[in-house]
Specification:
It is a single chain. By secondary structure, the protein is of the alpha+beta class. It folds into 2 domains: about 80 residues, no CATH class; about 100 residues, no CATH class. The protein has a 6-stranded antiparallel beta sheet with strand order 3-2-1-4-5-6, with helices on one face. Helix 2 runs antiparallel to helix 4. It is elongated and about 70 Å long. The chain starts with a strand and ends in a 12-residue tail after the last helix.
Length: about 190
């Protein structure tokens, strides 16, 4: 789960073993004990370094070298010793992420009912509306109300929990209601 990416734009992205993600912009290269202009250490993106980054070539055409075991070890040590920016903690990240999931689910629900986003549902579902899909819009609004209530309760729980006692993020997401779809209404 550890991740370290140092980009050609001098941005450093780190993911700690507990899942905490943070970024430093416009920083000097970390001293990892080996030469690189760009380094990617990520299970999804791969593990490689670019020793001489060429600004004239697109990123995917750069000459990449696989990381050696000693370089991987140096990266792991750096990740474990690195400190997040002030105010950055796993609790805040989880609270932000749960809010993003909530917004995504509301938009997905609106899409299921033929609306582009929640704003359309507000005017289509308002009292006195003659919109042909006003009852569907009201269902979306009811879903939004319900999921926000659960989201805020979950954020309160996360905020009140010590960082070292947090559950995995998926357990917090699991308590959010699933999207209300036309097929799920009986």
């Amino acid at each position: 789960m550890n991740q370290l990416i140092y980009t050609e734009d001098n941005n450093l992205h780190i993911t700690k073993p507990n899942g905490l993600r943070y970024e430093y912009k416009n920083v000097e290269k970390p001293n990892l004990g080996f030469e690189f202009d760009v380094v990617v250490y990520d299970m999804q993106e791969g593990e490689y370094k670019i020793v001489n980054y060429n600004d004239d070539l697109p990123f995917n055409e750069q000459e990449k070298s696989a990381l050696e075991n000693s370089e991987r070890d140096a990266i792991e040590d750096f990740i474990n010793q690195s400190e997040p920016p002030n105010g950055m903690c796993l609790n805040n990240q989880f609270m932000s992420d749960i809010e993003n999931v909530t917004r995504d689910r509301i938009n997905e629900c609106a899409n299921h009912y033929r609306f582009e986003h929640l704003n359309e549902c507000v005017y289509a579902g308002r009292e006195g509306s003659n919109h042909p899909f006003r009852s569907e819009a009201r269902r979306v609004l009811e879903f939004a109300d319900a999921i926000w209530t659960v989201c805020f309760q979950t954020q309160d729980e996360i905020n009140a929990t010590r960082e070292d006692h947090l559950k995995p993020f998926e357990e917090y997401v699991h308590v959010l209601p699933d999207n209300a779809t036309p097929d799920s209404i009986s």
